[in-house]
Amino acid sequence: MENTSEIIFDQLVYSCAFESYRGHEEFIPDHFLGFQISGETHAFHEHGKTVIKENTVVLVRKNQLIRTIKYPSDHENYQFVSITLDDETLRQYAAENRILVNAHLPADQKLFFEPDDFFKSYFASLMPYINKTKEIPPRLAAVKVQEAIELLLLSNPDLGNVLFDFSEPHKIDLREFMNKNFMFNVSVDAFARLTGRSLSGFKRDFYKTFEMTPKQWLKEKRLQEAYYLIKNKDRKPSDIYLDLGFENLSHFYSSFKKKFGVTTTEV
């Protein structure tokens, strides 16, 4: 069966899967607070792999690329619920409470929480809306989002330095970033934003750095990585083409043959 994700209201999303499901690459534009109700989420990102286990609360930072695999447990479907904490809501909260950021947490810090009584009660309070016993009025939805912010700050006041950091992503080293993230099949717009550049600035800096367009470089880089994995790691094309950013296997085969002059079985 297919994975299902349902937006209950603008900022509450519920995801359910009946069998293992590989999600698409996602650009995460806003922070979100998530709870793994059942099953596991395996998240692949710039800093490696993170496993979100059942009954775990996690704060996911904005402005990053993530690929997920969703695994049901032996006795239950996969279920994950998340509340989006968008900049507009967070700016309003910070202004009303006169909050200023005075430090920055490391970008690779994992933000997990054991669900205490407050978090358990909070996510339990969302279940009636997920189960559609009632429609949630917009004002009540706003209260539930604010409650999520309050709980995060109660659990760790330093999280304010994550939530209320509204600075634009600074211009980072393009070569280093692209070599870490080339396998994510997202738009050039997303790559530009994540490197702290406008789209035109990204394309200009990219050509200066790599002497080819982003589209050309991404295809070359992904094919070179595929060749290495097939030849030196004995990996099967069917196991790696999605992880390297190719959308379908037939396109991967034809691109590989065109690039190297041999098929994958002849490497």
From TrEMBL:
Query: What are this entry's molecular-function GO terms?
Result: DNA-binding transcription factor activity; sequence-specific DNA binding
Instruction: Please provide the record's keywords in A-Z order.
Output: DNA-binding, Transcription, Transcription regulation
Domain HTH araC/xylS-type spans what residues?
172-267
Q: What is this protein called?
A: AraC-type DNA-binding protein
Species name? Chryseobacterium culicis
